[in-house]
Specification:
15 helices, Rossmann fold, 366 residues, alpha/beta, 5-stranded mixed beta sheet, 2 domains, binds nicotinamide-adenine-dinucleotide
């Protein structure tokens, strides 16, 4: 009963549990919505404290994927899987292959990918049992490291924000403060340096930030100072949940545009930013480059095509900003509306053209 209540709340399509005693596999797949296409989402390998925690996580994450794919203009639905256990001690090739066989029984309704606790090499193992998996390394015909494409998408989303706030697409002369100096952040700094932007960067591992200082002339600040530095754009590229009341009060930027997932501490954080006159680019809209990159494998991976599609994040962010303005709502609410409207249009098209036809969905950017 509790499960069906949870599924009804946000209209989930499927929640499937699978166990394989021989390998100790316990996995759950959640398929939220397949109106736009098959549900694609990562496979998280995590030691959940309870089955309920695993179910909560897989449901929440699957729904997030529906919204991300929709706004990114992809004809994909939202899904996610979790394997319950400690990846360090529990993960074996046999277990991953059992997971692959499980995914295969879903006949493409769910397509797995890499996530927390799984790697591109794990996807190669899963691929031995099913073709419904993406996120393979380049030497296996996959899309490899998604961070350059994610960073490229963030750069274009940032430009849509500067157009709205500073009336220019040029970042030259603007100051961008980047939190984190990992995979996405380093690539973002590289792009920003090409645009002649001034870069301020931090990381809890100073050595990582030092690389951006040496390579791109960025300035380093201590991790806690990044919120209060004077800048035009704050780009969170490290952790989720950082935009809480305390940190928001310290910000001295006009725009927040970065790659980190789940940046807002709570729903009201978005409203707080709006009150402070800060334009927030919703995280799942601006960081969709990673999904765009991995989804490109479904057509036979082409890096230039993935970059080209990631550049269209400019249009998605611009559209979110326009909806927010027209409907007088925070940008995070506008992003959800944009996603839901595209799905509704596809549903309508399906009703008109018949359930057996593939959904006719115009790209939202045309
Ligand atoms: P990463 O692990 O390579 O980099 C994260 C960096 O943040 C690390 O260098 C880490 O030391 C640093 N960090 C952690 N806590 C910090 C703190 N309090 N202050 C400053 N630095 C801190 O990860 P990534 O692949 O670059 O991803 C960055 C973010 O973007 C994550 O939230 C990720 O979920 C999100 N994201 C990444 C991709 C992608 O393509 N990699 C796609 C979409 C979203």
């Amino acid at each position: 009963m509790i499960i069906f209540q949870r599924m009804e709340e946000f209209d989930y399509e499927e929640l499937i549990c699978f166990q394989d005693r021989a390998t100790g596999l316990q996995a759950i797949v959640a398929i939220h919505n397949t109106t736009l296409g098959p549900a694609l989402g990562g496979c998280r390998f995590w030691q959940y404290t309870s089955e309920r925690a695993g179910i909560d996580d897989v449901l929440r994450l699957a729904r997030g994927m529906t919204y991300k794919a929709s706004v990114a203009g992809l004809n994909l639905g939202g899904g996610k899987s979790v394997i319950i256990g400690n990846p360090k001690t529990h993960k074996t090739d046999d277990l991953l292959r059992a997971f692959g066989r499980f995914v295969n029984t879903l006949k493409g309704r769910y397509i797995a990918a890499e996530d927390v606790g799984t790697s591109t090499d794990d996807m190669v193992t899963i691929r031995k049992e099913t073709r419904y998996v993406v996120g393979l390394p380049l030497d296996h015909g996959g899309s490899g490291d998604p961070s350059p494409v994610t960073a490229y998408g963030v750069l274009h989303g940032m430009k849509a924000c500067t157009k709205a706030v500073f009336k220019t697409n040029h970042l030259s002369g603007l100051t961008v403060a980047i939190q984190g100096a990992g995979h996405v952040a380093y690539n973002l700094a590289k792009n920003l340096a090409k645009e002649n932007a001034r870069i301020i960067i931090t990381d809890i591992y100073k050595k990582k930030a030092q690389r951006a200082v040496d390579d791109f002339g960025a300035e380093y600040v201590e991790p806690d100072k990044i919120y209060s530095v004077k800048c035009d754009i704050f780009a969170p590229c490290a952790l989720g949940g950082i935009l809480d009341d305390k940190n928001i009060r310290r910000l001295k930027c006009k725009i927040i545009a970065g790659a980190a997932n789940n940046q807002l501490k709570s729903d009201r954080s978005c409203g707080r930013l709006e009150q402070m006159g800060i334009l927030y680019a919703p995280d799942y809209v601006i960081n969709a480059g990673g999904l765009i990159n991995v989804a490109d494998e479904l057509k036979g991976y082409n890096h230039s095509r993935a970059l080209h599609k990631a550049a269209r994040i400019y249009n998605a962010v611009a559209r979110v900003i326009r909806i927010a303005k027209e409907e007088k709502i925070p940008t995070c609410v506008a992003a959800d509306r944009l996603a839901e409207r595209r799905i509704e249009r596809a549903k309508l098209a399906r009703t008109i053209h018949g359930a057996r036809r593939k959904p006719v969905v115009r790209q939202i950017y045309t």
